[in-house]
Amino acid sequence: MNATRWVALATTLLLVLLTSEAQAYSWMNRHGYAGCGTCHTDPSGGSLLTQYGRAQSSLLLSTRYGTREEAAEPAPASAQLFGLTELPAQLLVGGWLRGGRIWNVVDGSLVDQRFLFMRADVGAHVTLGRFSGAATLGYAPASSAAQTEWAQVTRNEGGNAVSREHWLGLRPGEGFLLRVGRLNVPFGLRNAEHTAWVRAETRTDLNQHQQHGAALAVESGALRSEAMIILGNYQIGPDLYRERGGAGYVEWTFLPRQSVGLSVLMTHAGASPTTGRETLRRLFGAFSRNAIGKRLAVLAEADVLAVTTPRDPIRLGAVAFLQADYEPLRGLHVIMTTEHRRRADAESELEWAAWGGVAWFFLPHFDVRADAVRRWEGAAPSSMTYLVQLHGYL
Amino acid sequence: MRHLRFTLRASALVGLTALTAGQAQASPSFPETVANTLGTNELPRCTVCHSSPSGGFGTATTRFAEYLQSRGLRAGSTDSLGQALAAAEAERHDSDGDGQADVEALAAGEDPNGTVDVPPLEPGCQATLAPSRPPHGCWVALLAAGALGSTLRRRVTRLRRWRRPA
């Protein structure tokens, strides 16, 4: 490991150790929201926004022009369907459209550049008393297959329909939600960067690695948790590739806007998608969400991966993620991230990546983001990725 | 109203960006290069090098891919792939340690990473539980979810009518 990587590792550890305040769920916890179910239909975050969440999105996320913050009301366009028509309170509808352009540079040579069609989904959520249900359906072109194939419903050579989530829920009591269907896997931070190693290596991203199963979410005071029985992803086949087991996390908000959590995941599959061998995966992780003042939020996660195959009794890997999100002006985010990885399924040394980016929530429900990502991955030459994306959600 | 106009314009911009997104201009076809270099008719699976069945930049993470990268393989360069394969042949490199050199495994239509010969992973709901069984019930589940959604919608509509003052 060279000096630069040692410095990066030391900086990472220093930041983790010196961060005194913790804040929950991504950087929204800088506004005092430790739980997620208030603003999202998924109790662990992500997916559709509730009516309250839509209003908060307008009030807290996006840049406001010429309005005193204290007196501000949610923008009319932040209502469902931009406020063009009124929907029953029991029904939430939404949609996501995300597109962008990527440039990949290796050894100073541009080796890959293309438009990215990241997401074009619609979703709905219905509540009837203690029962609820939600589903999303979208389109993914062939160019984005590597990032959507685990969520495909159809199997065409070209574009395909995708359904990331579909579930039915029962709220047996205050603070409890039991769901069955295709769900986001409850593990670690629910960060948006689905290619981050903590999400890609653990296969727990929100983009395509949901699993079918049953999950119980509990939110009580300073604690929130979700446990899931994983029955396998029934949108891939054959059956021997489906992982079965369980996953869960518990998060404790020990001070306002300061949270720490633990995650665990254990799954067994008849065949790994990369080796074809029967594989037992055990993941153990810790994460934290910290806010330092009102402008800086720090997210951290570290996971240990233990992989067992008939050939290798146990192979250990690890991933770590540290992200600082600084918001100098409302809606404008400067995001710095460092990542580390040692893969469990290959003879690899410690790998390192650094991200720098800017995201601007320039309107309610719209943001534009630019990132530069440098990665040092094992024997491969270091690569540089530039990405700009435009995102809109109903 | 001005806010709404601005929002609609932004929506149009996002839509335009997404709709003009073209197909990937990824690396030239590496599987063909491997087949041509080794003189085989069968194209190797993407998972010989990639963690994703569809391949793609940043997913070449298998042991064999790591070895080729250590021998000069560069994304997008079929020349560098040819050179890395030549090195693998000269060194008789064996990624999975099974005694069979990587290039020999490839020429035999096998996976140099020691991957067990199992049916390839197939995305999509046409996947079956077992070859002998009929197509899996994924579509049935979706249809059931649709029917349930429709029922819920009818009930919501009825509830609204009921609550609406006469």
Give me the secondary-structure topology.
The complex is a heterodimer of chains A (394) and B (166).
Chain A: H1 3-18, H2 51-61, E1 91-106, E2 109-128, E3 131-140, H3 145-148, E4 160-162, E5 166-170, E6 176-183, H4 197-200, E7 211-220, E8 223-232, E9 236-237, E10 244-255, E11 258-269, E12 279-292, E13 296-308, E14 315-329, E15 332-342, E16 351-363, E17 366-376, E18 383-393
Antiparallel strand pairs in A: 1-2, 1-18, 2-3, 3-4, 3-5, 5-6, 6-7, 7-8, 8-10, 10-11, 11-12, 12-13, 13-14, 14-15, 15-16, 16-17, 17-18
Chain B: H1 2-19, H2 30-38, H3 63-70, H4 78-91, H5 102-107, E1 122-123, H6 138-163
Task: Describe the structure concisely.
The complex is a heterodimer of chains A (394) and B (166). Chain A is mainly β. Chain A has four helices and 18 strands.
Question: How would you describe this structure to a colleague?
Answer:
- The complex is a heterodimer of chains A (394) and B (166).
- By secondary structure, chain A is mainly beta.
- Chain A is 9% helix and 50% strand.
- Chain A has helices at 3-18, 51-61, 145-148, 197-200; strands at residues 91-106, 109-128, 131-140, 160-162, 166-170, 176-183, 211-220, 223-232, 236-237, 244-255, 258-269, 279-292, 296-308, 315-329, 332-342, 351-363, 366-376, 383-393.
- In chain A, strands 1-2-3-5-6-7-8-10-11-12-13-14-15-16-17-18 form a 16-stranded antiparallel β-barrel.
- The longest helix of chain A has 16 residues, at 3-18.
- Chain A is globular.
- Mean pLDDT of chain A is 86; it is low at 12-25.
- Chain B is mostly helical and 166 residues long.
- In chain B, 49% of the residues lie in helices and 1% in strands.
- Chain B has 6 helices and 1 strand; from the N terminus they run H-H-H-H-H-E-H.
- Chain B has helices at 2-19, 30-38, 63-70, 78-91, 102-107, 138-163; one strand at 122-123.
- In chain B, helix 2 crosses helix 4 and helix 3 packs across helix 4.
- Chain B is elongated, with a radius of gyration of 26 Å.
- Residues 17-26 and 127-135 of chain B have low confidence and may be disordered.
- At the A-B interface, strand 1, strand 2, helix 3, strand 9 and strand 18 of A face helix 1, helix 3, strand 1 and helix 6 of B.
- Strand 9 of chain A pairs antiparallel with strand 1 of chain B.
